[in-house]
Design brief:
Largest sheet: 7 strands, mixed
Distance between the termini: 61 Å
Number of helices: 4
Strand order of the largest sheet: 4-7-10-15-18-20-21
Shape: globular
Strand content: 15-25%
Structural class: alpha/beta
């Protein structure tokens, strides 16, 4: 505001002096301001390039940041040119193996919806038993909070003393492995499925996930297909991991970037 006010006062003083001298005030103001600002100010007239006789003496000045020319690479390879259409009607899971028959999968969906996801608080033993009954490998002392969801128990392996928080979702189209002492916080989302966005049929891609011993996936985090979370790594609140995480690394952001190193105190 101070800068724009200063420019208006300067323009007015030049305008008055030029009019008194009998010259064209609007044109003189422009010339003087261009010399004064050295290209740091822009002149915006109400009409684009009107004849000199139609130009208004009312001129608006606004401060503009310095600009740099931006060049974009030219795509000479025809395969890189954008285009094409997706036809979801032609989608097929291909050779994807669901790992169980239709009857077993339907029964699990029924049990999961009516019992597993709704069991309150400390019914951990029953939840572990339900998962084992459908083929999951579940270790000792596993804590599974209400609302936790598992797509295919027969593609799940959980080590000893793991925590799976409220509304955590394990979309295990391929195998998900949680090693000992892994903690998944509320609404953590692990998905082994993705799609090829360059495929006209939106081809399905599945890759397994492994979360190594002692790792912590905090609330609202996302782990994508094929990712290995290293031992005792930490994925910060709401972060997105699409690549492997180093052991003892602390990550945050989308995509997840390493920001610190985890140093666990002695005593355990």
């Amino acid at each position: 505001r101070w800068q724009s006010g200063r420019m208006r006062r300067f323009a007015k003083s030049v305008y008055v002096s030029k009019r008194t001298a009998g010259s064209n005030p609007a044109l003189s103001v422009v010339q003087d301001l261009e010399a004064q600002a050295s290209g740091s100010c822009a002149i915006d007239r109400q009409a684009e390039n009107p004849p000199h006789s139609e130009r208004s003496d009312s001129i608006v000045f606004s401060r503009l940041p310095a600009c740099e020319a931006v060049s974009f690479p030219r795509m000479t390879d025809p395969t890189q040119q954008p285009g094409g259409r997706v036809d979801l009607a032609a989608f097929s899971p291909g050779d994807f193996d669901r790992g169980a028959g239709a009857l077993k999968e339907a029964l699990w969906i029924l049990v999961r919806t009516l019992f597993f996801e709704l069991l309150p608080g400390r019914w951990y033993g029953l939840k572990r038993a339900l998962l084992r009954a459908f083929g999951a490998k579940i270790g000792r002392g596993v804590v599974i909070k209400p609302g936790a969801r598992v797509a295919f128990p027969w593609k799940l392996a959980v080590g000893d003393h793991c925590w799976i928080g409220e509304d955590a979702w394990l979309l295990n189209l391929a195998e998900i492995v949680l090693e000992d002492h892994v903690a998944l916080a509320h609404r953590a989302f692990l998905t082994t499925g993705n799609h090829d966005y360059n495929s006209p049929t939106f081809e399905l891609i599945v890759k397994p996930i492994r979360v190594c011993r002692g790792a912590w996936l905090t609330a609202g985090t996302y782990v994508g297909p094929g990712v290995t979370v290293g031992e005792h790594a930490v994925l910060g609140l709401g972060a997105v991991a699409t690549k492997d995480l180093e052991p003892y690394g602390v990550y945050r952001g989308n995509p997840a970037q390493k920001v610190a190193v985890r140093r666990i105190r002695n005593g355990v």
